[in-house]
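Title: Prediction job returns without error message
Component: structure pipeline
Severity: low
Priority: P3
Assignee: unassigned

Description:
Job completed but the reporter wants confirmation the result is attached to the right record. Sequence as submitted:
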Amino acid sequence: MEADQGAARRQVSDVVAERIERLIVDGVLKVGQPLPSERRLCEKLGISRSALREGLKVLRGRGIIETAQGRDSRVAKLSGERDASPLMHLFNSQPRTLYDLLEVRGLLEGESARLAALRGTEADFVLLTRRYEEMLAAHAQEQPVDPREHARLDHAFHLAICEASHNPVLVHTLQSLTDLMLSTVFASVNNLYHRPAQKRQIDRQHSRLYHAVIERLPEQAQRAARDHIHSIRDNLQEIEQEEQRLVRATMRLEGWA
């Protein structure tokens, strides 16, 4: 009898754990985000508190949920920080990586924009519109905004498009590259936003991308995303070449050559 009860309890805990895992995979619960209260989770999932606690215990054992002393339970960082950090350090230390990552962004974000235009729900588009308007509001401020805040808002806009693709693997792939992604966004913000022509170009590209997605134009959305990333790459390369020409000319002027 006790063995049967233990098996039933394990079965319920696994079912609850799988339902919460699905929320994480679907991006409803995000990495680092505190879980809703027990009461709210029980209401949403239609389960008892004891079943919820058993399910969370399973997830903690799998390393998917973490609970620090004196803090709420959160979705754990799933990418394996210990293994990823040396790789991230190597990538961040190599200037060439910026252009390699822009290539990857062009591929992944082009496809995520296409899928978002095909699969996005009205709720997705409400969130995307919110991110887009937050980005525009920051651009319109008279006082200069910290470039890192611009980068964060820019990245949040692109991530909202990816989430609207409803491809969990694509979403988690981009989220696992967040630190590197932010480095490319920061590079574009820091080098291009203070140049009026380039900033206007980026604003137009964001507008084309946003409208193609919410108007459900998949091919145009894919092209807009790729054109945007390729344009950033070309502009950054041009700035880099300008700086190299300036260095060479200065060295000749000072008699180095």
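Comment from assignee: result matches the submitted record. The mean pLDDT is 79.
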